[in-house]
Amino acid sequence: MDRFAEIKTFCTVAASGGFSSAARQLGLATSSVTRLVDALEERLGAVLLNRSTRSVTLTDRGRIYYEQSLRVLEQLDAADDSVLDQSSELCGVLRIAAPVTFAAMFLAPVVTQLRTRHPRLMLDLRLSDAAAHLIDESIDVAIRIGSLEPHPNLIARRLTGHERVLCASPAYLAARGTPQHPADLAGHDCLQFVFADNRRIWRMRRSDGIGGVDGVSAADMPVEEIAVHAVIQANNGEVLRQAAVNGMGIGMLADWLVATDLREGRLVRVLAGYQINPGPMDVGLHALYQSNRRGSQKIRMFVDLLADCLAQPELEEARALAPLSRTMRT
Question: Which of 75, 163, 184, 284 has a 20 to 30 Å separation from 141 between CA atoms?
Answer without folding.
Answer: 163
